Amino acid sequence: MESIGFIGIGKMGRWMAEHLLNAGYCLTVYDTNQDATNDLQEKGALIAPSIFDLGKENKVVITMLPNSKIVESVVTGEDGLLSSMNPGGLIIDMSSSYVFLTKTLAEKLANTGLTLIDAPVSGGVKGAKAGTLTIMVGAKREYYEKALPILRCMGENIMLVGETGSGHALKAINNYLSAASLYATTEAMILAKKLGIDLSVALEAINHSSGRSFSTQFKFPTFIVPRSFNSGFSLDLLLKDVKMVTSIAKDSKVPIFLASTVEQVYEAASITGEEDQDHTEIIKFLEKITNKSLIESKELECEQQV
Questions:
Q1: Is the CB of residue 238 less than 8 Å from the CB of residue 178?
Q2: Angle at which helices 166-194 and 257-272 pack, to 10 degrees?
Q3: What backbone torsions phi and psi does residue 4 show, to the nearest 5 degrees?
Q4: How many CA atoms lie within 13 A of 201 on its CB side?
Q5: What average pLDDT score do residues 60-86 get?
Q6: Would you state the CATH architecture of domain 169-305?
Q7: 3-state secondary structure string, the chain?
Q8: What's the confidence (pLDDT) of residue 260?
Q9: Rounded Cα–Cα distance for residues 145 and 2 (Å)
Q10: Which of 9, 48, 166, 207 could form a disulfide with 30 if both were Cys (CB 3.0 to 4.6 A apart)?
Q11: Residues tagged active-site
C-alpha cells in the first residue's frame, strides 16, 4: 500500500497513526518527543530522524500539530517538507489551524507543485482511539477524493465542506459552539443547584426539553458530575479555538458579540485555574466565583458508592 508520513504523535495523533498502520499503510512517523513514537515503532511504524527525511520518503504527509505557526514551521522551515517533498506530493493538515494562514500556505505550496488540504477533526481522544472522528475537509474535490481512503481509516463522518481552509474555519466554529454551550450549561446548573433543584433531576428534565445539548447529555454526566474531568481535551486548547473564531470574525468584518464574552470567560478560567486543566473543569471557575459547589463531597461519595 501507499506510504504515509505522520508528524505529531500527541494524544490523538498516536491513535490516528495506529489506525493507518492497522489498515496496512507503510507509516513513517516523527515527533519532537521521541518517546511518543515508541508504541508505534513496536507496532511496525518507521521512525524518521528528521522532518526532511520523512518528507523525502513520502508522497503523502499528515500533520497533527498544536497550531498554525508550528505547521508553517514544519512545512516551510529549514529542512522542512517544502524542501524535501517531491512535486505532486500531498500534505493533509489535520491540526486546528487558522483558516487564512492555511490559505496562504496552500497558495505558496501550489507554486512549487505541492498540495495542502485541511482536514481537522472533532471527537477528542475517545473518537481518535475508536476511529470514529468527524473530519471536516477543505480541498478541491480531486484532492478530497485522493485523501478519502486515508481519512476513512481514522474517522466515520467525513465531509468536504469547501475549498482549502474551510475545514479549519468550520472546526473552530464548532469548538466555539461547544465552549459556549458548556459554559451556558455550567451557569444553568449552578443556578439550579442554588435554587435547591437536584442536579440529576435538572439534567434529566433538560435532556427531554429544548435546552438539551451535547453538554447536558454527555459532558456533564460523563466528566463533570463524577468530577473525573478526563475528556482528553484541554481548556487552553478550547480557548485557542474560541480565540481563533473571534480573530476570524474580526478579519472577516463580522460582528460576533457572544464569542468575545466566551473568550473572556475561558481566559479567566485559564489564568486562575491549575495548569493543564481539562476543558470540563470550567465548572471549577464558576464554583469559585459563586462560592457554590455543584456537587458537595458527601453527594459525590454517595454517588460513587452507588
A1: yes
A2: 70
A3: -130, 140
A4: 6
A5: 96
A6: Orthogonal Bundle (1.10)
A7: CCEEEEECCCCCHHHHHHHHHHCCCEEEEECCCHHHHHHHHHCCCEECCCHHHHHHHCCEEEECCCCHHHHHHHHHCCCCHHHHCCCCCEEEECCCCCHHHHHHHHHHHHCCCCEEEECCEECHHHHHHHCCEEEEEECCHHHHHHHHHHHCCCEEEEEEEECCCHHHHHHHHHHHHHHHHHHHHHHHHHHHHHCCCCHHHHHHHHCCCCCCCHHHHHHHHHHHCCCCCCCCCEHHHHHHHHHHHHHHHHHCCCCCHHHHHHHHHHHHHHHHCCCCCEHHHHHHHHHHHHCCCCCCHHHHHHHHHC
A8: 95
A9: 15
A10: 48
A11: 171
Average pLDDT over every residue of 135-141: 98
- Report yes or no: 33 and 66 within 8 Å, Cβ to Cβ: no
DSSP bridge partners of 136: 159
- What is the spatial distance between Cα 150 and Cα 242, in angstroms, rounded to a whole number? 29
Cα torsion 244, 175, 120, 159: sign:
negative
Q: What is the pLDDT of residue 305?
A: 45
Q: For residue 296, what pLDDT is reported?
A: 66
The set of cell numbers assigned to 139 is 480541498
Average pLDDT over residues 103-113: 96
Q: Are 7 and 36 in contact (CB under 8 A)?
A: no
pLDDT in tens, 157-196: 999 999 999 999 999 999 999 999 999 999 999 999 999 9
What's the CA gap between 1 and 55, in Å, rounded?
17
The mean of the pLDDT values for the chain is: 94
The domains of the chain are located at 3-163, 169-305
Distance CA 200, CA 114 (A): 53
Neighbouring residues of 293: CB distance < 8 A, sequence distance ≥ 6: 287
Per CATH, is 3-163 categorized as 1.10.10.2840? no
Whether residue 119 contacts residue 95, with contact meaning beta carbons closer than 8 Å, is answered with no
